[in-house]
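The freezer alarm interrupted the setup, so I double-checked each line after restarting. Inputs confirmed:
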Amino acid sequence: MRPSSPHTRIEHLLRELAPQVLGAVIRRFHDFAASEDAVQEALLAAASQWPRDGVPDDPRAWLIQVAARRTTDQVRAEAARRRREELVVSLVPPELQLVLGADSDEALGRDDALVLLFMCCHPALTPASAIALTLRAVGGLTTAEIAKAFLVPEATMAQRISRAKQSIKSSGVPFQMPTPEETAQRLGAVLHVLYLIFNEGYTTSSGSELNRTDLSGEAIRITRMLHERLPEDADVAGLLALMLLTDARRAARTAPDGMPIPLPEQDRSLWDRASIAEGIALVTAALSKGAVGEYQLQAAIAAVHDEAARAEDTDWPQILALYEVLMKLSDNPMVTLNHAVAVAMVHGPKAGLELLKALDADARVAGHHRLDAVRAHLLERAGERDAAIEHFRKAAGRTTNLPERNYLLMQAARLRDTGA
Amino acid sequence: MKYMLMMNHPGQGQYQISSWPQKDIKAHIQFMISFAKKLSASGELVAGEGLAGPDQAKLIRAGNDGKPITDGVFAESKEFLVGYWIIDVESPERAYAIAAEASAAPGPGGKPLNMGIEVRQVMSGPPPEFM
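Predicted 3D structure, all chains:
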């Protein structure tokens, strides 16, 4: 995404303004679901009118006005429906209910984005719903765009979003700045949702596109906003660092034919130096505060990779030490799997293969293609060609990601070719 | 009219492709990518997906309590669906022509595979005279 064309500039502006506008409208109407619908309509109207008629002098005010008008219509219709149903006349006409102070406070607008983010990552929501709602309310994406990013029909995504809004409504959580205590409680869920959005963009769990950069970029943008509001939080800084350090390799990750390129074979001159520098500065500062969380550790590992000028210069003993700390913090089999790779790099493939045996008994990862793929790599390095071919083929049969399947088939073929 | 083109994998066990040399796999993948691109550009592609390996496949039926009963994996089945395309074309002949093109995807040594592609018409709503 390069903000060069007017169209792209408008798109960026709308994404930036979306949460501020939504926050302002919700503060007036105290109705998340109705306000959210109205803001979506206002954003769609702007996306079609502004490229043609030009961007208004105060785009934020324009959007708030259009969205407020739509919400008013909706509230009126709702009031009329209630009148018909209950045969009572409201004592306060809806017009009067709506005449509240104008929004000119920019700082308030920015806080709104934070409130929205914490609302959308409500613990009562499934991660899938929280992701969809966050992308719409905070990210300013349309339902169609979110549906496309997750490769589902628009109607399916619309349903998911309306269910999520219903859950928020019935939870009765008011729209207000969370207290420091609530912020701390909710922050873990928020970071998890952002992490999932980033990962979905970085490696799709299914389908034929390896990279959907829209989602990764969106996750980085929202996490950056969160970091600006909570600069002292080491977990937020750690997550932003992790995203930047991972995303920095994006251009080198995929061959022109769509085939994924593994880390050791990537052309490191394609890595984004600015992102790496920013990520390293962030993670260094976060770790120096003494707060060692999972995101900081994963970011630190990514930083060690990114700092190596060539794959063979990678400081594996340091990576191994970081994985050992990480394993103490989390019981994640994928961490154990990556730890085994680090062990193999430091102490040889046999030592790594030995550690994989424990994972065969772990139902969460036994039968997962990543376990087969790692085993295949280590077997190859141990010189066990036939066994490596077998496991590459097994991994290929188990992955649901098409480019990755092709990559694994090629690895098996490469080994067979060298033996022929 | 819409047609579904189904690519069935003959034989048993793992993908046949997994025993080909590297350059032949590459050529085959390239063919499939450009085939999908071409159909998409001509406006004839409605949908198309490759399916995950058959060793992931399960057969589900409802038990008396309505709960799923899972059967499988079926590594020994005679053939299995590896992928499909749904196309929207003017005539059955065009659907057959596209299927023939898919059938001739390159195999080992770059030779056309000439694999069987099952062509089935997708049913649509009632014709105008019934509405």
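Quick read of the result. Residues 56 and 62 of chain A are 7 Å apart (CA to CA).
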